[in-house]
Amino acid sequence: MGSTLMTCALTDLGIQWAGWALAAAFRTEKFYDLAGSGTFILLAHLSRILGGANHVRQKVQTGLVTAWGVRLGTFLFMRILKDGHDRRFNNVRDSPGTFFVYWTIQAMWVFTTLLPTLMLNTEKQDVPLGTRDYIGWTVWGLGFAAEAVADQQKWLFKSDPDNAAREVHPERTVGPQQTPKLSWRDPAVVRSLALRLISDAGSAVPECGVSSFRLVLAALRQRHPHPGEAGHEEVGI
Q1: Cα separation of 87 and 107, whole Å?
Q2: What is the percent of the chain with per-residue pLDDT over 90, rounded to a whole number?
Q3: How far is 72 from 76, CA to CA, in rounded Å?
Q4: What is the pTM of this model?
Q5: Is residue 29 part of a domain?
Q6: Quick one: which of 21, 73, 101, 138 has the fewest CB in 10 Å?
Q7: Cα dist. 162→8, 154, 165 in Å?
């Protein structure tokens, strides 16, 4: 497991740092989210190949990550092409050092979010599918559908010139204005894929730690692009 996780971690960092070099050179953030979602897909398949087992559970899990990454990456890329810029980076794109921090945070976000799937894809023993698998996949499906519908609604809302200056954040907000905009949909999509690994208290501890760490990363991704102003951009997880 260790060598596979290390390979995935180094690959993740390599992709994000290469993306940073290009983004800093051209002073653009247009492929930032696309690089993130693309790395999700690549690492999921890389871990499955390196794991060598290729069980049904691993195939399904990797397929779900792929579906989520393709949908979210396509949506975010089309959105930035339409808008022309991402205002989260208004004070970042001209500062290579700060830009590097953002790309590094994205690398950490990708790896910690995907860690349950990476761990699953290293398992050699083919445990029969059980109730926990089907519950997790069902929760994933509900979260995926709700996330897709919400993103489409936001797209249509922002496409109306009368709404161009308005924010769509209440339905994604889970607390005070300064908290990350993490609705139930986003954790549902991610954590449902970790359900298979939480078989006892011992394995639940790392997942709780990863979830907490991801919330910290989400707060950093949301807050830093807007020094001196409240952030409204959702955190795509």
Answers
A1: 20
A2: 41
A3: 6
A4: 0.75
A5: yes
A6: 138
A7: 45, 13, 8
Nearest-angstrom CA–CA distance, 120 and 151 = 29
For residue 103 the two structure tokens come to: 């790309």
Three-state DSSP at 52 gives coil
C-beta of residue 41 within 8 angstroms of C-beta of residue 22: no
Closest Cα to residue 181, out of 192, 168, 194, 190? 168
Mean pLDDT of the chain: 78
Question: H helices of the chain, where?
Answer: 2-26, 32-51, 56-83, 96-120, 131-159, 185-191, 201-223
What are the tens digits of pLDDT across the range 22-53? 999 999 999 999 999 999 999 999 999 999 88
Q: Is residue 233 part of a domain?
A: no
Q: Are 121 and 62 in contact (CB under 8 A)?
A: yes
Give the list of residues 6+ apart from residue 15 with CB closer than 8 angstroms, or none.
35, 38, 39, 42, 107
pLDDT mean over 121-144: 89
Q: Give dist(CA 22, CA 24) in Å, integer.
A: 5
Domain that holds residue 28: 2-223
CA distance 102 to 86: 13
Residue-wise burial string across 54-86, b where 16 or more C-beta atoms lie within 10 A, e elsewhere:
ebebbebbbebbeebbeebbebbbeebeeeeeb
How many domains are contained in the chain? 1
Contact status, residue 66 vs residue 48, Cβ threshold 8 Å: no
Cα separation, 65 vs 113, in Å, equals 11
Does residue 229 lie in a domain region?
no
